[in-house]
Amino acid sequence: MANGLRSLSESQLEQCRLAFKFLDEGRSGVLQVETSLGHFARLAGFCPSEQQLRKLMEKLENRKIHSLNFDKALDVVCEELLPLGCHSMDMFDSIQEALKLLDASHLD
């Protein structure tokens, strides 16, 4: 089991799943670090500054990591952003509801 899965509540995990699914438009099962990591982090309820996000992306680039599956994306944001205090529940409910609506509209 991924470390990130142990760090979050079931509701938080559901929000992460919805965010990943929403951003994985091609249903390939991976997100590109350069174009989607910031969106994933924020939709999942994390609130990194632009500088924190840039440092994280550079760190992944240096490791030659260009795409992330769900478990790895979750591990990355939990391991790198949670210790920085970058998780906010302020907009959790509204973001989760919006993602559910968007996901439902993708099924139409």
UniProtKB/TrEMBL annotation:
UniProt xrefs under SUPFAM superfamilies: EF-hand (SSF47473)
Gene3D superfamilies listed in its UniProt record: EF-hand
InterPro entries listed in its UniProt record: EF-hand-dom_pair
Name of this protein: EF-hand domain-containing protein
UniProt organism field: Perkinsus olseni (Perkinsus atlanticus)
